[in-house]
Amino acid sequence: MTKRLLLPLLTVFALNAWADDSIPAPPQIEATAYFLMDAASGAVLAEHNADVQLPPASLTKMMTAYVLANEMEAGRVHKDDMVVVSENAWSQNPIFAGSSLMWIEPGKDVSIEDLERGIVISSGNDATVAVAEHLAGSEAVFAEMMNTQAQAIGMKNSYFVNSHGLPDPSHVVTARDLAILAQAMITRFPEHYAIYKERDFTYNNIKQYNRNSLLGEDPSVDGLKTGHTAEAGYCLVASAERNGMRLISVVMGTKSTTARKNETRSLLNYGFRFFETVEVYGPMQELDKPRVWKGQQDYVAVGLLDKTLLTLPRGKSKSLVTTVELDPQLVAPLAVGDRVGTVTLSVDGSTVLEAPVVALEAVEPGGFFARLWDSIMMWIASLFAT
Q1: Which residue of the set 41, 58, 158, 163 is catalytic?
Q2: pLDDT tens digit at each of 386 positions of the chain
Q3: Between the N and C ends of the chain, which has fewer C-beta atoms within 10 Å?
């Protein structure tokens, strides 16, 4: 029986499948938690305490910016919309004392475009509250929007209670979830992601610089966000692209701004040095053209609907072995996307990808006599098979 494939193909990479001598162990990272993955394939290259819930500090603003980008792309808010700053969002609100600010003033109008940069570049806690109140009416309701989006993109172990990340015992994220959030921002909203690489932002005649110092030191780095509180330590989510390969790194709970930068650099250099991401199959890639019975045609193209990527130790892609197993008898009708078998890719005897093979074209049922004839032929074939 065929099965309709409704979801995109999953690319699976098991780091533990590789022998120790294939690649060196990840570098020693002085952080409470860290995570390194390929942005395109989702392959996890290094991790430690990746699912431990930790305070995110200003990394929270990645989700605030994500929700804002989602609302803008949906057309529910526009960059030129003006937001009236409330007393809660005022830079002089006592809860913001000593924290990063955009320096907005109560009663003044500020554009969504400026607030977005105030969140991403200046890391303004005041800007996040202004956006939260504009989009949802209150921070509490906006936090519900944040959690809804978190669930939608697969952040399974994070929970938000405010838009800025100031300490709250219930406000937690994981390193893995932050990488998932970064991946979603990069892939879904590239125009908004581009703001993360801007080096400075001036508002109200106050020029502030992006706290991600890797932007000026490593030309491959183009995002994302820093964070710091006494509870969270020094944190950094970063992304870099070299020779067409993009990695996302997360470090949480380091001891200083220098430490979070250096540990991030170590993770990124490790990933780019020892791994590569290759396109194994293109979209609608045909793998075989087997016999199909009781249809208006005798053969059907089968393969993979979507582009399939693998992240492997460098040089291992040359050793890929492909095995395609199809269902014993394919019978019309078949629709595009119906599952008809499995493709397995292995390297050195270890499986690195297993994905469904599907029909790449529809096959309508044949006429009465054609179906009758094929039924007879299938019966005869079954006799020899036994």
Answers
A1: 58
A2: 333 333 333 444 444 344 446 789 999 999 999 999 999 999 999 999 999 999 999 999 999 999 999 999 999 999 999 999 999 888 788 888 889 999 999 999 999 999 999 999 999 999 999 999 999 999 999 999 999 999 999 999 999 999 999 999 999 999 999 999 999 999 999 999 999 999 999 999 999 999 999 999 999 999 999 999 999 999 999 999 999 999 999 999 999 999 999 999 999 999 999 999 999 999 999 999 999 988 899 999 999 999 989 999 999 989 999 999 999 888 989 999 999 999 999 998 889 889 999 999 999 998 887 788 868 787 877 777 65
A3: C
Q: Say which residues have a Cβ less than 8 Å from residue 315's Cβ, sequence separation at least 6.
A: 276
Listed in sequence order, the residues at least 6 apart from 65 whose beta carbon sits closer than 8 Å to its beta carbon are: 116, 119, 120, 185, 192, 195
Q: Which amino acid is at 338?
A: D
123 noted as active-site residue: yes
* 8 Å CB contact between 189 and 183: no
Instruction: Assign a CATH topology to domain 31-275.
Output: Beta-lactamase (3.40.710)
Predicted TM-score (pTM) of the model is 0.88
User: Strand 275-281 vs strand 302-304: parallel, antiparallel, or unpaired?
Assistant: unpaired
61 catalytic per annotation: yes
Give 95's contacts (C-beta < 8 A, 6+ positions apart): 166
> Exposed (0-12), middle (13-18) or buried (19+): which is 326, by Cβ within 10 Å?
middle
**Whether 322 contacts 300, CB under 8 Å:** no
- From 1.50.10.10, 2.60.410.10, 3.30.70.360, 2.60.200.40, which CATH number describes the 3-12+282-385 domain? 2.60.410.10
User: Which of 41, 99, 123, 249 is the catalytic position?
Assistant: 123
Closest CA to 270 of 245, 244, 234, 235: 245
Task: Give the residue carrying structure tokens 């193209």.
Answer: 301
**Annotated catalytic residue: which of 61, 225, 261, 316?**
61
Which residues share a beta bridge with 44? 37
261 is catalytic: no
